[in-house]
Amino acid sequence: MKGEEKEAEKPAAEKPAESDLKIIRSEFKVEETGESQTINSFQATKYLITWIVEWQNVRTSEKGTNSLESAVWATPYTDLIVKAQEEEQKFFRAHMKAIGLDQDKVQQDVLGTNWMSILDGMNAAKGRPGTSSAIARALTR
């Protein structure tokens, strides 16, 4: 059309531009501090986590350092924690059922677990559903 410009078409195999930044050093360290305390009835140990990244701009030769430091209180994964998680799941499932939501259905919808079953029923050689899977048979109807 008159007065309209066409967008320039990009080549299909355009290579992404390389970064000007090069990582010179990356160091990740976890140190136990020796501190411990009881938090919510669980024995916890304090750890310091440090991540240091040194970089250089290869175009300008500029150098820099980024760092992340974090203090974390952690507790061993014990039978007591497993029991607490199971109790929490039991409560969550009962709550979801009480408000009319099927947790398994919600997980399938949100997490997309159904697609794995569908892919499992696909015949990779022919690129179409196989005949042995009930899901695959339902897809071909």
Write a brief caption for the model.
The protein is an alpha+beta fold and 141 residues long. The chain has helices at residues 79-98, 103-111, 114-120, 134-139, and strands spanning 21-39, 42-57, 63-74, 122-123, 128-129. The protein has four helices and five strands.
How is this structure best described in words?
There is one protein chain. The protein is an alpha+beta fold and 141 residues long. The protein is 30% helix and 36% strand. The protein has a 3-stranded antiparallel beta sheet, with no helix packed on it.
Present the secondary structure layout:
Blueprint (H helix, E strand, L loop, with lengths): L20 E19 L2 E16 L5 E12 L4 H20 L4 H9 L2 H7 L1 E2 L4 E2 L4 H6 L2
Antiparallel strand pairs: 1-2, 2-3, 4-5
Order of helix and strand elements from N to C terminus: EEEHHHEEH
Spatial strand arrangement across the major sheet: 1-2-3
Strand content: 35-45%
Shape: flat
How many individual β-strands?
A: 5
Number of helices: 4
Unreliable residue runs: 129-133, 135-141
Query: Can you give the helix content as a percent range?
Result: 25-40%
Question: Sheet bearing the most strands, described?
Answer: 3 strands, antiparallel
Kindly report how far apart the N and C termini lie.
Answer: 45 Å
Overall pLDDT score:
80
Radius of gyration: 27 Å
Q: Which structural class should the secondary elements be placed in?
A: alpha+beta
